[in-house]
Amino acid sequence: MSVMTAARTSAPADRPQLGLRERKKIKTREAIRTATYALVMEQGYDATTIEQIAERAEVSPSTVFRYFPTKEDIVLTDEYDPLIMEEVRARPADEPWPDTIRYVMRKAAQVGIEEDVEVARLRTQLLAEVPAVRSRMMESMSVTGSMLCQAIGERTGRDPESLEVRVYAMSFIGGLMETSLYWAENGHQDDFLTLIDRTMDVLEHGLPTEKP
Q1: CB atoms within 10 A of CB 8
Q2: 0.85 cut: is pTM over it?
Q3: Local mean pLDDT, 10-residue blocks, the chain (212 residues)
Q4: Residue 140: what pLDDT?
Q5: Residue 189 has what pLDDT?
Q6: In whole angstroms, what is the distance from residue 203 CA to residue 195 CA?
Q7: How buried is residue 122: exposed, middle or buried, by Cβ count under 10 Å (0-12/13-18/19+)?
Q8: Which pairs from 28-32 meet CB under 8 Å and 24+ separation?
């Protein structure tokens, strides 16, 4: 599950082509997500049922549950966490770690906003307004955190299970979640890339000594 609910990233150019079965799975997941977003925009999150989603996506309710255990997972889950990790691994080996993670997060955010800004806004709005979505996001953060720990370990030579790496990774993920919440709570008026830069500045340098 992507901790940055607004962010998506494209696959590297040399990524192997997926097989037919995997492409069908992705197509089904996308159909379920698209149906969910449309229904939520029409009638709200709480009023949207799995049965309605299945009918709109032209699949059975059991298929929806097979791909997404809960309705919250439909909103939060995407295909992009592994691709973000691939982007991290593709950066130059001698690039400082803060520069690597800032580049990857800016790219992910930019692609996500450009791909479908309304969906990005909807996802972050639901994160801010629906307790069940926010709770499920908190549960999913450990999965993304483990992936990030592995990437940090590969790039820095540190033990991915060390306290320092785990604290850094989860601080980063928590900061990105708060960035998404802040964006939604302030009516999506701010430029999301600017917010990402502000977040990265705090994680890299700490809290500014001067008030804004």
Answers
A1: 24
A2: no
A3: 48 56 87 95 96 97 95 81 76 88 84 80 93 90 86 89 93 90 95 93 86 62
A4: 84
A5: 94
A6: 12
A7: buried
A8: 28/57, 28/59, 28/63, 28/67, 29/67, 29/68, 29/77, 29/79, 31/57, 31/58, 31/59, 32/57, 32/59, 32/63, 32/64, 32/67, 32/68, 32/74
pLDDT of residue 34: 94
**Rounded Cα distance, 208 and 212, in Å:** 9
Is residue 158 packed enough to be buried (19+ CB in 10 Å), middle (13-18) or exposed (0-12)? middle
CA–CA distance, 61 with 65 (Å, rounded to integer) = 6
Residue 144: CB partners within 8 Å, gap ≥ 6?
1, 2, 3, 81, 173
Q: Which two tokens stand for residue 41?
A: 């925009």
Q: Can you read off the two tokens belonging to residue 61?
A: 């309710």
Give the separation between CA 72 and CA 133, rounded to whole angstroms: 5
Give the distance, in angstroms, between the CA of residue 13 and the centroid of all CA atoms in the same chain: 21
Q: Are 57 and 35 in contact (CB under 8 A)?
A: yes
Confirm if 160 and 149 have CB atoms less than 8 A apart: yes
pLDDT of res. 61: 96
